[in-house]
Amino acid sequence: MYQVGDRVKFMNDVGGGIITKIVGKNMVHVENEDGFEIPVMTSEIILDEIDQEAVTNSDKKPDVSDFIRRGTQKPKAEERKQKVEEPITIIRGNDEPKFYLAFLPENARNPLDGQTKVYLVNDSNFFILYHFSHFANEQYVTQEAGKLEPNTKLMLGTLSQADIANLPAFGFQLMFYKDKSSRLEKPLRKRIAINPVKFYKSGSFKENDFFSGKAMLYKLNESDMEKAMKELTNKELKKQAREKEPARNSEKVKVELPELLEVDLHIDELIDNTAGLSNKDMLDLQMKTFREKMEEAISSNAVKRVVFIHGLGNGVLKAELRRELSSKYKKYAHQDASFQEYGYGATMVIVRR
After folding, report:
1. Residues in contact with 10: Cβ distance below 8 Å, sequence separation at least 6, in sequence order
2. Residues of the chain with pLDDT > 70: what percent?
3. Statement: residue 55 has pLDDT above 60
């Protein structure tokens, strides 16, 4: 297990540095020989045995705090000058702010098979001062803060399958600027809550301009034009649907259901606000929806299979659903749904062959 102050070497690159921060079980921050702090997976580093031996044989062992102070102290004038001269990538015409939250799985075909890397992507000619946090239990908990250069991306951390099952909302505060500009930009504040079900579906991850593999992207800022186009598109779709809708008569129109009915039982898909609801209230609502959809499928002549997406969580909803299937609906076979599509978070019921 690595500790702050350990000197390490990079396995897939030249050089090494000193660990200045432990981010989680699988990632640390390392200050390299140039004084830059970079996030690194623990699987990509090893202890610098020569350095550790020198420390062991020395008369006085250095205090870990010495390493920490060294990592946070102000650089010398020569070092500051050297960092300023590092090349900055400026892309002609890329002058509008475009910032993304990105999720890059190790295996895009089965995103839950391995770690998923979380990135902040700066697709613009702006510098960013960023603050990244998790929102849970009505509190924002800081995860990372720093500066991101133009047209670069930064790995903020990794997610395991257990992390995805209990996914927090992600909070961002961004202040962006150029070295020379005719205007001052408004700081950006954004909180994104992502349905864990999206990680169960390989279709959520798409080809993109930022990674060689498929990734899931969320834009942190939308221009006024993009918002207007989205609203216009929604209005046009609703208008077209109304125009194509046949004239209503007094007879009840029967809705044809597909052969495969997919039902998402995550509470935030059923109601907009859970304020004032106890865990029992939410479970009762989820089970009520389950029963309604089962009866709907059984009475239909078209539905052959129903997939109930319950997620992993603490397993209470899955256990209650399976219990009722084995008692009230025991004539209908049930099993885990496709792992490739839903991971371990869904149950499929065979209504008819």
Report:
1. 16, 40, 44, 45
2. 79
3. no
Tokens of 162: 């257990």
- Is the pTM value of this prediction over 0.85? no
Token pair for residue 51? 């350095």
Render pLDDT for 32-49 as a digit per residue (tens, 0 to 9). 877 778 888 888 888 876
The amino acid sitting at 6 is D
Residue with tokens 């959809």: 293
Structure tokens at 109: 């075909």
What was the pLDDT predicted at 230? 57
Please determine, for residue 238, whether its predicted confidence score (pLDDT) is greater than 70.
no
DSSP structure class, residue 202? G
Higher pLDDT, 330 or 37: 330
Per-residue exposure over 166-198, b if at least 16 CB sit within 10 Å of its own CB, e if not: ebbebbbbbebeeeeeeeeeeebebeeebebbe
Q: With contact defined as beta carbons under 8 Å apart, do 328 and 294 qualify?
A: no
How many Å apart are CA 108 and CA 104, to the nearest integer?
Answer: 8
| End-to-end CA gap in the chain | 53
For residues 161 and 190, what is the distance between their CA atoms, to the nearest angstrom? 25
Measure the CA–CA gap between 194 and 291, rounded to whole angstroms. 26
**The pair of three-digit structure tokens given for residue 112, joined into one six-digit string:** 């839950």
Q: How many residues does the chain have?
A: 353
